Amino acid sequence: CGLCQRADCDPEVVGPLCHQNRLWVHENCLHHTSKLNQRGANNQGFYGFFFCDIWQEFKRAAQKVRPGGTCPHREMLHLPGTSVICCHRHCPQIFHFPCGKEQGCVSQFFGEYKSFCWKHRPVQRVQAVQHDQVLCLICQEEVPGHTCYNTLVHPACASGRFHRCIQGQALCSGLHHFRCPLCRDMRTFQGEMFRLGVKIPDRQAWHRVRAGSSAPAANEEQGGGGLSTQPGAGTPQPGGLWWRLLLCSSCGSHGTHWRCSNMEDDTESWECANCRDTGTSEGCSWSDG
């Protein structure tokens, strides 16, 4: 990427790598470059950023950064492309987009697409959990009782605590289906996730896009937050597909991870154990409770 100077980044973090002749750049690096303006329509250039403007930004970002501005990623300090500037007034911090994410910076994907350094990022003020152990509903790993950069809390659902792996669920579900996996709230949940830097693309759910369907899923409008609890083995696939949730196609009140049900990449539906008794299913039998 001509901005972050990296090729080892998770696509869930930086987005797809766009290229045109000798021009290579990540989508999210483009959107959060502080001095680059989106002057075209979405189908022009890269997401509305003209190629000539991107080249000009490459040249500008390659110049010496302003005094006090250094990328937090030590290995990247002397490389060009540090083009993301903290929006806090008088803050000198400037960094590469993926380096900032690794160091706890927050870049928002709505409105003005603001970015904040690790000192001035948005924080949550919620009551600490008193339980002995809380598990992330996505990755099933333990979540700290206190809030921090890697712990996100749904303010309207005290038990809804997640790691930043919720980003994979947001990309999979899309704006029209992304909601709290526990209480199923959408409006408050999405607003808080947007504020904390979670990218929620304005499109249908991932499996519906692949299936070529644009109709909303009726069964996703109801039901509880039942999850698969069988731990998966191995290393997650690129993009976090193994830990994305798929709701029961019959009742919508139970869910499973792709990995837990050993699903193929092209699997588009799944049934829980309760509904399987009255039909056929290739899924697993985990359910809530």
Automatic annotation (TrEMBL):
Residues 210-235 are annotated as: Disordered. It comes from Chunga burmeisteri. GO terms for molecular function: zinc ion binding. Keywords: Metal-binding, Zinc, Zinc-finger. This is PHF7 protein. GO terms for cellular component: nucleus. SUPFAM superfamilies: FYVE/PHD zinc finger. PANTHER family: PHD FINGER PROTEIN, PHD FINGER PROTEIN 7.
